[in-house]
Specification:
The chain is of the alpha+beta class. It has five domains: 83 residues; 116 residues, Beta Barrel (OB fold (Dihydrolipoamide Acetyltransferase, E2P)); 256 residues, no CATH class; 47 residues, no CATH class; 162 residues, Ribonuclease Z/Hydroxyacylglutathione hydrolase-like (Metallo-beta-lactamase, Chain A). It is 52% helix and 16% strand. It has 23 helices and 22 strands. Strands 1, 2, 3, 4, 5, 6, 7 and 8 form an eight-stranded mixed sheet that branches. The chain is globular and about 100 Å long. The protein starts with 7 loop residues before the first helix and ends with a strand.
Length: 705
Amino acid sequence: MTDWSKYPFVRMLIPFALGIWISVFVVDIRLSPTFLITAALSLFAMATLTAFLLKRQRHTWFFGAVMACYLFIAGYSLVRVHESEIHKNYYRSFQADASYYVARVYDYPTEHPNSIRTVLELEYQFCDSLPSRPVSGKVMAYFPKSDSAFALHYGDLIAIPAPIREVTPPLNPEEFDYRAYLERKGITGQVYLKDEDWIDLQANDANPIYAFSYRFREILLASLQRSGLNDDEFGVAAAILLGYDDNLADEVRKDYVAAGSMHILCVSGMHVGIIYLLASFLLGFLNRKKWQKTLKQVLLLTLIWFYALIAGLSPSILRASLMISFVIIGEAIRRKGFVVNSIAASAFILLCINPNNLFEIGFLLSYAAVMGIVVLQRPIYNLLYVKNKLLDKAWQITAVALSAQIATVPFTLFYFQQFTTYFWLSNLFMTPISFIVVISGMILLLVSWIPYLNTLVGYLVWGSVYVMNWVVAKIESIPYSIIKGLYINDFEFAVLLVALLLLMLTFVLRKRRLFIAMLASLLLVMTSVTIRMYNSDHQQGMTIFSLRNHTAIDYIRGGEHVLLVDSALMADESTVDYSLKGAWSKRHLSHHPQVIGLEEDYANEYLWKKSNLVSFDGKLLAIWDDAVQCKDGLNYRLPVDYLLVRGKQKPDVRSIVNGYEMKLLVIDGSVPRYLAEKWIAQAQDLDIPYYNIGEGAMEVGYVLK
């Protein structure tokens, strides 16, 4: 029987995390932080009292129940307190009076294909007729590539104009919610700043620790370039060694994702673990006496956190460093066997610092992978006995990859709707190669100031990274290396998490009935998916997607669909991936539909298009743009269900009314905002029903028969 007293942080983490989750997603009761803190402290006092009064073993369950309630309330309260701190002096509360803000560059500015991006923290608001006031809030800022923007550094103070735009919510079905993603990071607005829009105040208010971290990383990146690394090899080496992925080419990034090796490019537990193992081996001579062992643990902790510092103190490296720190501390206090408790302790502390970590996909994936390796790797490895030492080592690596993949499958399906098929093959080759890259890369950073020697080690790093990129590209080229469109809904995601928990408990508690319950959970998921797939075979409808500067109309019947698009969208793969494929995955549709252009004629058994007219499911849609318009001299008005206006043409609803008798005027997302407002004003004047696609996609039909 498992002694749960050895895992106190595991027992603490579950109700604490549940309280955070309930506070954000389920219950929206606006209780004051003071009341919540009082309730939490009262429960803690009750738990402490019961610990003294009920000393018998049979009564300890009552203490555990009270503590669980306390931790649940504490998690719930923490979210409310965190929200109240964020909205203290919140800039939007006074935005109507603002003329400009003083903001601090909060994050390291990074270069992107079309802009320079960073996060600004607002500090003061200035008004024309009122005194300045301190404000709070973070905004995402985009700068054009210019000398003044490239000169920005972390901590610089700048003046920016008001107002600040809100981040646009998702406009299409199943589109990534970028606004919610930023809000969980405390970012609630965005600004686009041309050179003439902002003023450098020639002052700096940087956190000295982060300033040193960013500056030291810049020096190390320059040393990597001086050692002969360039192009893709430099981008990969910088990402692996220092967590700097701005120079990583999109094509290389896609290769690593498809091969199931993207985790190698993020400074995470694997990298920190390699450094820990190497340093622990080199400091092995300090294992003789007690004081030497203590000194060794202190040196290891110092080295781990110094590496976190030079790697930019990113969330992933902080998680990994904290996890390994608790493992080191556990060894120091002779709790080496309870790695799971150390992992839970690090997660508990990170949630106390920021409860929104619970909803960060990086946080979830890293802890799920580590827990999977700790709990499942040994049982998977024991399934197969390999006598040959080399093959046995390969099977060990494969078992690690399998355990991590099993633990992260629910998250990759729910958040990314895809599955990497050859992850086991990729990790079989990439694990030893990445080990060489990390070790040789660390040596290169140490000897980068020594002529000739840095070049020699640089060649070793370059060669290792080149082989790594070549292996990834070859694995990515194998057919079906990545399977996309694997949609699961909220219910199926929750049941998969339950199944994963039951699987882990099966091996921890060694109870067969838990395994049977896990199989029942999987059967429930399969039943739900089967029902959704059956319903998708009977769907029929039309979706007009909301895309800036583009037009996309999807006609769906059963599992087939035809996409009507403008010519520019056909070549814009990133927009299709971001805005359209989520809806296709949910409806079990192919990611490669029949595509026709706006100027083409087309006909099949359920869709007919001629010139600017489209007939589908008994409904008629007419397209009105610069190329196709109706003349005033028609003898009759053509009755249509929908009339879609698109492009940058001058708004003229009266001309449309002369040619068409429409039930609904649809203003496409390709219409600029200022023109859309004029279309809407004219429609309102003529009392014509309208729908603005710029505010969200329009779905018609989809009645499941």
